[in-house]
Amino acid sequence: MTPLERRYRRLLAFYPRPFRREHGEEMLAVLLESAAEGQRWPRLGDSANLLRNALWMRRLGADWPNTHHPRLWLMVRLLAGTWLLILTAILCGYGRWWGLALVPFALLHFALALRLGRFIGRGADGPPPPGLGVS
Amino acid sequence: MSKRRPMQEATFLILTALAGGSQHGYGIINDVEQISKRRVRLRAGTLYTALERLQNDGLIEIDREEIVDSRLRRYYKLTPTGGQRLAEEAGRIHSHAKVAMSRLERKGKAAPA
Fold it and tell me: Of A125, B65, B86, B113, which sits most exposed with the smallest number of CB within 10 A?
């Protein structure tokens, strides 16, 4: 593996895992194909562009979770969110109103669960596409 | 038909590139550069964010895959829906441009070349 390829791979690692599995190898091919002869470092513009797009895909409202096990994580998120709400109710029942501070965390779990649900709903969590034996 | 937001230029150019037949990522970048007369050079991050969205929207699909020099090449092609959307968008731009040109001409041939 050339230094340039290694550096581009490091940049691609900012993308959510399922997206990288789907498009990582072909993106790498495009990046290396457009590289100049003997180029050792990623171009600054390309790096910034990869980073920006990778972070955009990781935003809360995006369809891309960062896991290969979306179903498992969906259960974990739902249970964690529910458990936090129950805990809040118990705390408030005993007059510990600071328990309400847990609610945002519960909502965060539910938001992440929603993203996982959308990902699964798209059928995007199937087996990896053919031709991607390399990692 | 419901009103749609105008297509982004990058999206329009990618679909235009694929209207001539299936192409892989690097081919699309070069073709878009040519279509736009060297004004638009797509970067890999932008291209694949767009391809992913277009695929999800059903406007393009994977045509075939090849391994060249042990590198993956995935070819994309327009779907019938994608062709229809591109035709609509091209028609919209064309009709606006036509009005602009004819008005400028009527005003005294002030239209720049």
Answer: B113
Q: Which chain B residues are Cβ-neighbours of A22 within 8 angstroms? A: 52
Distance from CA of B10 to the nearest CA of A (A): 14
Question: How many domains are contained in chain B?
Answer: 1
Residue B13 covered by a domain: yes
pTM: 0.78
B86-107: per-residue pLDDT in tens?
A: 999 999 999 999 999 999 998 8
Chain A residues with CB under 8 Å of B64 CB are: none
Q: What angle do CA B72, B12, A23 make, to 5 degrees?
A: 20
List C-alpha distances in Å: B67 to B23, B72, B84.
Answer: 14, 5, 31
- 3-class secondary-structure state, position A110: helix
Percentage, residues of chain B above pLDDT 90: 77
Using CA coordinates, name the residue in chain B closest to A52.
B45
d(CA A31, CA B46): 12
Contact flag B29-A30 (C-beta cutoff 8 Å): yes
Please write the tens of the pLDDT for every residue from B45-54. Answer: 999 999 999 9
Could you give the CA distance from residue B59 to residue B46 in angstroms, rounded to a whole number?
17
Distance from CA of B55 to the nearest CA of A (A): 12
Domain of B69, CATH number, reads 1.10.10.10
Q: Give chain A positions within 8 Å (CB) of B44.
A: 27, 30-31, 34, 46, 49-50
Average pLDDT over residues A94-107: 92
